[in-house]
Specification:
Layout lengths: L5 H26 L1 E2 L5 E2 L4 H14 L18 H13 L2 H30 L5 H15 L3 H8 L4 H21 L2 H17 L4 H16 L7 H29 L5 H7 L4 H32 L3 H19 L15 H20 L2 H7 L7 H21 L3 H4 L8 H17 L5 E4 L4 H6 L2 E4 L6 H4 L25 H7 L4 E2 L3 E2 L2 E2 L1 H7 E6 L2 E6 L14
Parallel strand pairs: 3-4, 3-5
Antiparallel strand pairs: 1-2, 5-9, 6-7, 8-9
Helix pairs in contact: 1-4, 1-5, 2-3, 3-4, 4-5, 4-6, 4-7, 5-14, 7-8, 7-9, 8-10, 9-13, 12-13, 12-14, 12-16, 13-14, 14-16
Amino acid sequence: MEIPSRKRENLILLIISVGFIIWSTAFIYRSSFVAVDGRRYFCLFDDAMISMRYAWNFSHGLGLVWNQGENIQGYTNLLMTLLMSFATLIFNKSTAVLFMQIVGMGLMLAIAYVSAGIVNHIITKENHQIRTFIKILTFFCALSYYPLAYWSLMGMETGLLTLLLLSSVLFAFQYTSNKKISYLFFVSGTLGLAFLTRNDSIVYAILVWAYIAWESFTSRSRADVGKVVQLLISIIFYFGIVGGQLIFHYWYYGEMLPNTYTLKLTGMPLVLRIVNGVGFISPFLHQIIFFLVIASMEVVFNFQKRKLLLISLFLSALCYQIYVGGDAWTYWRMMSPFIPLLSLLFILSVNDLVLAISSTQASKAYFFRRPIFPDKYIFPFLVILLTLAGLLLINVRFLPNILLIEKPYQQNANRMNVNRAITINQLTTNNATVGVFWAGSIPYYTDRNAIDFLGRCDKYIAQLPPDISGAVAEKGMKSVPGHNKYDLNYSIKDLHPTYVQNFIWGAQNLSEWAANNYVKVNHNGISVFFLKDSPQVLWNKISEP
């Protein structure tokens, strides 16, 4: 391999970055739509739109709430929500969403940059040629896992969490290399911000701190008191951030843990949660097994503590996904943050395998005796080819989306919900209420008080026992977390929302009751259900009675 100059390396990274920006721009356009009012709208993943509603209310002086006057923490991503509030303060609703999608693009590029930076601390003995080659491939792979790009571009906190966790790993490696205390506090800061992004990142923080302690105090050089004090102070700083957020939660919402914790993790027997989790994660393991085995070989046959940390972070995410009982979407949002680290191990392992095979007498005699192009190019070509094959295997299910043949997941649902929101705005007064299963885009684009049928923003629903009858079972799970607590009699019959999205969920069907109490109306081609004779409905404006 010819040693690329620094300028050539930067040029290659720039070309990859520009390619990703072009693809991301096309993705964002494909995720948008022209609504019933003739305007183009941008819309994030529905859970991200819940955070956008919190952000809009916060930036407009209504508090960090879903409904004005109701202090319920229905988000789990404080830092991302605060970032969204900056966008909602400056822009209108649709443009604020577009801004967050552009932020997601920037987060992905930053993730790729940090991933490439980690290579310098994994490859220490090889020459500059190999290091640069691996860095470029790692940069490319970090941008090439579709679920990570999807969640980042659709406004979820996954991209921000990934960047912060990978940055903490990079700072941990820098600290153990030169023992500068500033890097130790960078670890504390990035892990602290990761906790503000998602509280469950504390699982991964423990592993990073454990690695630093292991690397610092089991080395040949005797650990002095100063190092111990530095580590303790940095850990205390981290837990100060953790404690600060918990105190804020209790002061503002009356509870330390978010309502979503109660919704998803209480009432479900542990054994059933684990069965759920195994059923949910099995398709992911089938998709990634080849990638994981090859990456694990690098840890086993070329052991480093740093490589062990990388694989441990991935495996801990796998175990945590099983523990929480799966997820509602098979786009692997909890696993995606660690795919760049797994990709690095995969690339290193593939590089070692190609070098080992190429050095054998048999390969020299039969396979590489008369190569099509010079020897110095054939080996990196094989590494690139095998790396692309690995990427294809873990992305094969998403190829229609990657090629933009299919629209991004939930785009059609977002379009329908925004159309409904526009119709609600046109046909109801400001004091109307909306009852929803999709608690994001309709409440965000209507500004009406909302009723969350699935309990993310409703404490009563969150505390109900989950439905484990199988009526809410899909994606290999016997009961879908976050979607298995509901009481339509309470949410619809008792609360009487002006608008209702639907009357059926799980084992409950209120269609017969609704026929006497709600009216289905059509307005400009959009169908909605309104409370019969409600004074909050502008009946005279309906285009089709």
